[in-house]
Write a structure and sequence with these properties.
The complex is a heterodimer. By secondary structure, chain A is an all-alpha fold. Chain A is built from 14 helices and no strands. The C terminus of chain B is likely disordered. Classes of the chains: A mainly alpha, B alpha/beta. Bound molecules: adenosine-5'-triphosphate and magnesium ion.
Chain lengths: 322, 335
């Protein structure tokens, strides 16, 4: 019956692949257009001879033509090689792997908490619209949504700094301890940065869910469901939220896509050694391979999660794929 | 005892401006078992508000007074919880614009089966099977239960809405303009279907509409509403041939090609605003036979013949006039 489904999936996947390729190329061009290179930085020693510059340029593969560089870039990419960091001479892929492993749990925790809390509070404030509960939830959501992230992070440090760790991922000089002790320590460090992410996203989700639910509550089929004798709980989940989820799924695709990208501001405020902090430092040091790798990862993650959201949307809404 | 007994029903809406809109003003109705009862009136006269009140479905901005009994049981006294017990098992409804009565993301069969499951009328399996049978009853193949609303045409959706309304074998079916959005051919089919089902299943039906020919063709009795009140209630023949309220008479006169075939003369003026108090008769500004008394006295609904009630001073011997519609002109009237 859903004969259009396969067609739809193939189209979305093809679209995602094309998007990734375009961004790949764009990344390459963008970074070659920027002024300065690793050579400019590394050769800024006194008396750097043209010979030294040339040697450095050759070492980093910057001597050949742009087109050759592009082909080499693609070729290496397809073999899983993202190049070598200009700064620490390590393969970019190895650097990124550690950073991503640090980022994902922290950002994922914040995002998941925000999505669950935001959907709940958006649903409640829409159902209880124009009551004190609605005003409280909506106004606090607007506040959290509009606070600058770094400011919110600093406020949390001021408020909770004496109870919870505020920098890094582990307590320095605490070596040893069982696996569980270490995990507990890391979790403690995670609380404040995760909370910062959760609060900002929470505001956004509450507002989006509230307006989606309000719109759905006015639909004829919701009145029909009430007439059928459906109880409030079932009404809100099976009828209202099930329909209001459609726009929210798209937003969730975006949020989850950014989990890998990390949160640059939050990681900088809390010196969380994740990919956001790595990008920040790479920018300062003009570490192009590192930046390219990070952006590539972010692109793929955003595109993949959007694709997942699209596919989920099609599963949830029979009108999409007929 | 009538199946549906409505006594002195009032509905007020709290408007955002802080004012109150008195949408239903002391409506009383008796609908007998097995009857096809029409509720007629111009747009905005309170028809939908009345039928929503019968199921306790008005929004929270509405306050309701009066009593509604379905088969002797009081519907309104128990709040939302009390009303819910009567929904669909005793009173079911086909909504105005039920084109959108189905959630777009669930199959038609799921939605028809849902009330049977939640009211414990049938197990999930039996409910699904019954959903198919109900669809066949309204002329849709049972296999279509697996389809989604967007795969149905408007007429099919309307039929499916009727099938859904019948799922818990209600005693009373409220149909609020069930054919408005459909083309004429489909309209006729849907009405025929309603009429047949009412007869075969011994259903009591309240049919809300502003479509007079329709009421005249299929209903047994009808009530005419104006400005939130009942203006006249009688058997449809009596309403047409011996109407005792100028509004009913003018309404029929404004309807083309009905039974006889007359010129279209729409009623000049517009219905009264319900968010401000009305002194005297609500219809007076548009009435062609108003007398002095109409400006100050509010006419009460009174029996004018057996099974025939009207709210008009012209029927009061004290007013000294009686409108005889068959004469085509109001018989006298001092002003
Ligand atoms: N939720 C509401 N809030 C405020 N006023 C309302 C609300 N619903 C209806 N009304 C008002 O109550 C009056 C009666 O409306 P209702 O919908 O019952 O009329 P109706 O006879 O069904 O009209 P139609 O033929 O257009 O469906 C109108 O004046 C309308 O503006
Ligand atoms: Mg209506």
């Amino acid at each position: 019956m859903r004969s259009g489904t396969l067609d739809y999936v193939v189209k979305r996947v093809a679209f995602a692949l094309v998007t990734i390729f375009i961004v790949l190329t764009f990344n390459f061009v963008l970074f070659r257009l920027l002024p300065g290179s690793a050579v400019t930085d590394l050769s800024r020693v006194p008396n750097a001879s043209p010979a030294l510059r040339e040697a450095l340029a050759r070492e980093f593969g910057l001597a050949s033509s742009k087109w050759d560089q592009y082909l080499a870039y693609l070729d290496q990419l397809f073999h899983g090689n993202l190049g070598v960091s200009y700064v620490n001479q390590q393969p970019v892929w190895d650097n990124l792997r550690t950073d991503v492993a640090n980022t994902v749990p922290m950002v994922a925790l914040g995002t998941v908490v925000a999505v669950i809390a935001g959907i709940t509070s958006g649903l409640v404030s829409a159902w209880r619209r124009r009551t004190p509960a609605d005003y409280l939830l909506t106004n606090s959501a607007i506040a959290f949504y509009s606070f600058p992230t770094q400011w919110l992070g600093l406020m949390l440090i001021v408020l909770f700094g004496s109870y919870l760790p505020t920098t890094g991922m582990t307590t320095p000089f605490q070596i040893g301890g069982s696996f569980w002790q270490q995990a507990g320590d890391e979790l403690q460090h995670m609380i404040l940065p995760s909370l910062t992410i959760a609060l900002t996203l929470y505001g956004q989700y509450t507002l989006v869910v509230r307006s989606a639910v309000l719109e759905t509550l006015g639909e004829d089929y919701v009145l029909t469901a009430r007439a059928k004798g459906v109880r409030t709980r079932r009404l809100l989940t099976r009828h209202v939220l099930r329909n209001a989820m459609l726009p929210i799924v798209t937003l969730m695709g975006l949020s989850f896509g950014y989990i890998v990208g990390g949160a640059l501001l939050v990681e900088t405020v809390f010196t969380w050694p994740g990919i956001g902090l790595a990008v920040y430092q790479a920018v300062l040091q003009r570490d192009y391979p590192m930046l390219q790798g990070a952006f590539l990862l972010l692109t793929i993650s955003v595109v993949v999660f959007n694709l997942l959201a699209d596919l989920l949307y099609a599963r949830l809404d029979p009108r999409v794929s007929g | 005892m009538a199946l549906l007994e409505v006594r002195d029903l009032h509905v007020w809406f709290a408007l955002p401006s802080g004012r109150e809109l008195h949408a239903v003003k002391g409506v009383g109705l008796d609908v007998e078992r097995g009857e096809l009862f029409g509720l007629i009136g111009e747009s905005g006269c309170g028809k939908t508000t009345t039928v929503l009140a019968l199921m306790g479905l008005l929004p929270s901005s509405a306050s309701v007074a009066g009593s509604v009994r379905v088969d002797g049981a009081d519907v309104l006294s128990g709040g939302e919880k009390g009303a819910r017990a009567h929904r669909w098992t005793e009173t079911a409804m086909v909504f105005q614009g039920s084109m959108n009565a189905f959630s777009p993301v669930k199959t038609i069969g799921w939605q028809i089966a849902e009330p049977m499951e939640i009211h414990g009328v049938a197990s999930r399996r039996a409910a699904r099977a019954r959903a198919g049978e109900l669809l066949e009853l309204v002329g849709i193949p049972a296999a279509a239960a697996r389809r989604y609303p967007h795969q149905f045409s408007g007429g099919m959706r309307q039929r499916a809405a009727i099938a859904m309304a019948l799922s818990c074998e209600p005693k009373l079916l409220l149909a609020d303009e069930p054919t408005t959005a459909l083309d004429v051919m489909v309209q006729a089919q849907i009405l025929e279907l309603l009429q047949r089902l009412a007869r075969e299943l011994h259903l009591t039906v309240v049919l809300v509409t502003h479509d007079l020919p329709l009421v005249a063709h299929i209903c047994d009795r009808a009530a005419v509403m104006y400005g939130g009140e009942i203006a006249e209630v009688a058997a449809v023949d009596a309403l047409y041939h011996e109407s005792r309220h100028p509004y009913t008479r003018m309404l029929f006169a404004a309807t083309p090609e009905l039974l006889g075939g007359k010129d279209v003369t729409s009623i000049p003026g517009s219905p009264p605003r319900l968010d401000q108090p009305i002194v005297g008769c609500a219809f007076r500004p548009r009435c062609d036979s108003a007398v002095v008394r109409c400006a100050t006295d509010h006419p009460a609904l009174a029996e004018v013949a057996r099974g025939h009630e009207a709210a008009c001073h012209l029927n009061d011997p004290a007013t000294g006039v009686l409108s005889v519609p068959d004469a085509g002109q109001p018989a006298g009237g001092a002003g």
